[in-house]
Amino acid sequence: MAAALLSNVTDHASLPSSYVRPESQRPCLEEVITNANIPTIDLTSFDVVAQVAQACSSYGFFQVVNHGVEVELIQEMMEVALEFFRLPAEEKAKHYSDDPAKKMRLSTSFNIKKETVRNWRDYLRLHCYPLDEFVPTWPSNPPTFKEVVSTYCSEVRQLGMRLLRAISLSLELEEDYLVKVLGEQEQHMAINHYPKCPEPELTYGLQAHTDPNALTILLPDPTVAGLQVLKDGQWIAVNPQPNALVINIGDQLQALSNGRYKSVQHRAVVNKDKGRTSVASFLCPCNNAIISPPEKLITDGSPAMYRSYTYDEYYKKFWSKNLDDVHCLELFKS
């Protein structure tokens, strides 16, 4: 099935029928709000915690600047991602798999064993923590791949822990509460490539979904917008800012905050004139972490919204479904 990779073809003359959405499910690109944007937080500002609280409760998404990840490393990460998808088809085929359980795999769409309509996306999925366990299994081409990606992963993990502490404080919890509850967090990465699409109005790079993990840190393509966030029933384009990273709340933080913070639906759309590449880093609870809101966030007027569960239970349920199905978190309501 490696032949299914979209990045093996330089220019696609037409959109195959397997990617065409029913009319009622198409992105309606002309209705997207392009001149509004999600909050931007300068992590060196004095009121970071207050800004995080506002962004998490109102959007579930925000961008961060002055985040501590070096500009040169960000550029190197994007360059090596682009280089990977430019590799010859036979080189990429070595890494192809449709098995979601594999901890290093190149694939296409989202979960082609479950889908009825495909997404216009190729992606390389990596497990990233602990690095010494997983880096040996990563691609050796491009030659700088392992060095650049592992360095980026380390920096992003530090940023993620910093953000989780700010989110804990914003919920008026102890600073290390979320870091402790989530346990020895796993870290995954999806290097996404969305090639030029001949008919972007008929399909998605990735249809609307929420992230099943705790926190996602996205390195967006600096030249092409494609990420969109749903707010108050309208889709808002997330326009990339120079060297900014995009942060979004995952399902586990919605559950742990007892619904105060929302894991917001987002989607990726595609472009007729330009391809787009992005790098998503996912901080995930350890498999045996018990996901349950703290007593401080449970009151008579705000009872527990979700039953207690392990992250392993949640993750298996998520991957057993198609993205078009009901929001996975709904299946865990009290």
Automatic annotation (TrEMBL):
Pfam families named among the record's database cross-references: 2OG-FeII_Oxy, DIOX_N
Domain Fe2OG dioxygenase: 185-285
Alphabetical UniProt keywords: Dioxygenase, Iron, Metal-binding, Oxidoreductase
GO molecular function annotation: dioxygenase activity; metal ion binding
Cofactor needs: L-ascorbate
Keyword Metal-binding on entry: yes
Keyword Oxidoreductase: yes
Alphabetical GO biological process terms: defense response to oomycetes
InterPro entries: DIOX_N, IPNS-like_FE2OG_OXY, Oxoglu/Fe-dep_dioxygenase_dom, Plant_2OG-oxidoreductases
TM stretches of this protein: none
Family in the record: Belongs to the iron/ascorbate-dependent oxidoreductase family.
Protein name: Fe2OG dioxygenase domain-containing protein
Organism annotation: Zingiber officinale
